[in-house]
Amino acid sequence: MRVENLLPFGAGQCMLLQMEGGAGRATVLLDCGIDLVPLCASKCLFHPTEGFGASVKFHHPDFASIDVESLDAVVISNHLNMLALPFLTEYTRCTAKVYATNAAVAIGRLMMLELVEYFGNRSRPVPFPFGLTHHGTADAQVAGALSYLYTAHDVEACVQKINGVNYHEVTDIAGVSLQAVSSGTYLGSANWIISSLSEKFVYLCDCCSALHHPTALDVMPLQKCHVCLVASPPPPLFSPQPQQQPQCYSYEQTLQEFTAIVGSTLRQGGNVLVPCYPTGVLFDLLEQLHKDVPLAHPALVVSPRANEHFAYTTICTEWLCAEKQALGFIPETPFVHTAMHACGSLLHYPTTAYQVFTSAQRNAVFATALRVPPAPPVTYGFTFLLCRNPA
Question: What secondary structure, in 3-state letters, does the chain show?
């Protein structure tokens, strides 16, 4: 068995697994991510019509460094780790079957289309090869590549090539079996079990044991493995006081502290701007806000695809935790953001170019988008949640 990393640590997930199967050696690509951190310095955020983004290059796996035609399968753990997939399926000779849960495919498609809104060349497809260059890092053995972004047409073509699976569904390919089980982090996020007659390999990526909206972390199928690869463990959530001994916070405590800060800021007449993704933790933030903070003015979500993300949560019951699944049979909406939007306390906007945003709020969003982030592996997104005072 051999595992090769195709991206530097903190620059997205992509690994190459080779193991002996019943029909010879099986080669499986584990995830297909890109490095999103440097993109926060791009001027095109929230100004997608001005065309700044077409000149941005993306750091992604260097598929020229491997034999893509020998790949037997590609497995995707979650929507964030499939953002480089069109580079593989549309610009190389890869014919491997791609597997991801149906929820990860649906959300990943929206995430990729949102990237195209900001950074894509919408005028024409970019022919292959399209500026593949090695990207120097501290680890000279893991370089990756830099390329301009794919197009919306590439995204749709790529999604059509993905085989959607459900949790615990077993797929046999090249003498090994593939099985996805819940990782508990996002809707449809999965840990993968890859088994042959003699070996059991477990790929863990972004696990979360906290009880929140997705299906709970499924631990039982992961036991008695020969090799367990833990990719990108989340950094601990520490107390913000640097002079004190760092204190690790649970997920629930972090949400409670978040709403306490939001409530205090709003009571003093301020605004709170939260960079995030249009899915995942955003749903938990809205639930906690609705529970703990009385909003005098509607909260605003700024994302060109927010409406579609929120709409998907109304039809994805099978990917939710047991408590939220039960709400779907009452019937009652599993997510509070549906009720917030219905009563006008939550509004969606594709950009900040609307009169509802004051000049100061618009500048704050743009300034935050331009902020160069600290070193990876900190996660950043291109959606903003704004809890505000109108003046």
Answer: CEEEECCCCCCCCCEEEEEEECCEEEEEEECCCCECHHHHHCCCCCCHHHCCHHHCEEEECCHHHCCHHHCCEEECCCHHHHCCHHHHHHHCCCCCEEEEEHHHHHHHHHHHHHHHHHHCCCCCCCCCCCCCEECCCCCCCCCCEEEECCCHHHHHHHHHCEEEECCCCEEEECCEEEEEEECCCCCCCEEEEEECCCCEEEEEECCCCCCCCECCCCCHHHCCCCEEEEECCCCCCECCCCCCCCCECCHHHHHHHHHHHHHHHHHCCCCEEEEECCCCHHHHHHHHHHHHCCCCCCEEEECCCHHHHHHHCCCCHHHECHHHHHHCCCCCCCCHHHHHHHCCCEEEECCCCCCCCCHHHHHHHHHHHHCCCCCCCCCCCCEEEEECCCC
**Higher pLDDT pick, 221 / 334:** 221
Task: For residue 15, give both structure tokens.
Answer: 């690994």
CA–CA distance, 370 with 362 (Å, rounded to integer): 13
Round to whole Å and give the CA distance between 150 and 34.
Answer: 12
Q: How many CB atoms lie within 10 A of CB 389?
A: 16
| 211-225, 242-256, 278-292: least confident range | 242-256
pLDDT tens string 140-177: 344 567 788 889 999 999 999 999 999 999 999 989 99
Q: Note whether 13 and 204 are within 8 A (CB).
A: no
Sign (positive/negative) of CA torsion 297, 303, 304, 305? negative
Instruction: Give the pLDDT score at 128.
Output: 44
